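Supplementary Data S3. Sequence and structure tokens for construct A.
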Amino acid sequence: MKTVILTGGMGSGKSAVCRYLSSRGVPVYDSDARTKSLYDRDPSLVLKMEQVLKVSLRDAEGRLDRRRLAGVIFPDPVARSLVESVVHPAVLEDFKRWKRWHRPGGWTYGSVPFVVLESAIILSCPVFDGVGDKVVFVDAPEDVRVLRSVERDHSDPAAALRRIRQQSFDLSRVDAVIRNAGSLEELSAETDRVFLNLFLYL
């Protein structure tokens, strides 16, 4: 079974593309959601993070205190790198398990089965090198991305713009681009166009 990596910056519309693909019967692995789920499902993962950081990360109920974790890693690139060295391999193994249990149902683009791995940071994570057979990048104009981010997160436009400009992607690794500057109907048509073309080479 093939794997298509779907990536893109903040406000580009990755989630909308994923929802559309799911509606067409494509299994989609949401990296952010699965990572958060892993924190709750795998106590050993939290323990390993505590060991590399040498701090307690649990709340009164013994679960990961996400606010405490964020307070440790966001201001400290070294701490963030240590956590990533624990979390990224765990997410990769979770994806491999997930992929074994999923098969496309009702896939209408063709007969070759594949799954989609959605992640904003995957192209900058060496542990995931070689996982995808193709890479699709979702893109949109910067002003559109800022507006979407502000509406979604109720954030300050200047702060959203700073976060967007801090993201970088190695576009040399991208096989196809979904342009997302219009309506959901236009996005659906663009997704169809890109995946139908990409599908010929999977």
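Construct B, processed identically:
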Amino acid sequence: MEIKNIIGWVGMLLATFWAGIHMLVAGAIAINVSLLLGAFVGMFVGLSIISGLIFLLNWRKYYLPNIIFWLIMLLTLIFGYVHYIRNGDINALFTNILAGITLIIDIIEALLALIIWKIDIE
């Protein structure tokens, strides 16, 4: 198996896991906060599944949008952390295990997207 295929499978599995976590988050937000905000998070769930397909099927022309998507997700989560810290609710930041897992997955996905793009250029 080529390294590109291994990266594709790992990227697809992590993107699917990320989507599963955010399905729970979207439902909780829709019930507790706002239907519109829940739908917004749900949109990212769909985009994450598409990103998994990009990884798995090696769609070259979508590598750059895939990188941009994962960087946006990473920045969104980091800004969410900054919002927690500014409001003084630091305990909520460190006790939310889903946010921690998502941060790790976002970093790995952004790196995998960059690596697979770099491999394809060579």
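Helices lie at 3-32, 35-57, 63-86, 90-95, 97-121. DSSP finds five helices and no strands in the chain.
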